[in-house]
Amino acid sequence: RQKASIHESWTEGKEAMLQQKDYETATLSEIKALLKKHEAFESDLAAHQDRVEQIAAIAQELNELDYYDSPSVNARCQKICDQWDNLGALTQKRREALERTEKLLETIDQLYLEYAKRAAPFNNWMEGA
After folding, report:
1. What residue spans of the chain are helical by DSSP H?
2. What positions belong to coiled-coil segments (predicted)?
3. For the domain that residue 112 is a member of, what is the CATH number?
4. Is residue 22 classed as helix, strand or coil in its secondary structure?
5. Residue 22 CB: number of other CB atoms within 10 A?
6. How much is the average pLDDT of 98-105?
7. Are 87 and 14 in contact (CB under 8 A)?
8. How many CA atoms lie within 13 A of 37 on its CB side?
């Protein structure tokens, strides 16, 4: 029960955080910072995998012992496992969105640089004309 409570309090707010679209208006440097923050979250998420497995193992053990409140334990365990799967999917989806945005902004930066390189000689010619 305590492990489940600790896990549930850790997951609180994580789904909303993973669904933020803060990257849509970010600059390239902000995207890089968001990616670093996301990588740290992924490490934290991986560290919590063990806790979810422990909760599932305890629920299984209680089932095998014919614990009187097994249906309640199973329901809570199922909810935790479903939420865990959802967190994993949202984490992957956010990583893909961050990486896609980073690539897009890097391409835009390259295009600006290319434009500046080509515009400089033209500007010099215009000033001389």
Report:
1. 2-11, 14-18, 28-64, 70-128
2. 31-65
3. 1.20.58.60
4. helix
5. 11
6. 97
7. yes
8. 12
Q: What is the pLDDT of residue 114?
A: 92
What is the predicted pLDDT for the residue at 91?
98
As given in the structure block, the two tokens for residue 51 are 């806790």
Number of domains in the chain: 1
Is the per-residue pLDDT at 129 higher than 80?
Answer: no
Structural domain including 106 reads 1-128
Cβ burial of 99 (10 Å; 0-12, 13-18, 19+) is middle
Copy the structure tokens of residue 78: 């199922």
CA distances from 15 to 6, 51, 106, 117, 119 (A): 16, 18, 28, 44, 46
Position 16 pLDDT exceeds 80: yes
Whole-structure pTM value: 0.82
Percent of the chain with pLDDT over 70: 100
Positive or negative torsion for Cα 64, 67, 70, 72: negative
* Rg for the chain, CA atoms, rounded: 24
The Cα 10–Cα 122 span in angstroms is 58
Q: Residue 80's CB: how many other CB atoms inside 10 A?
A: 20
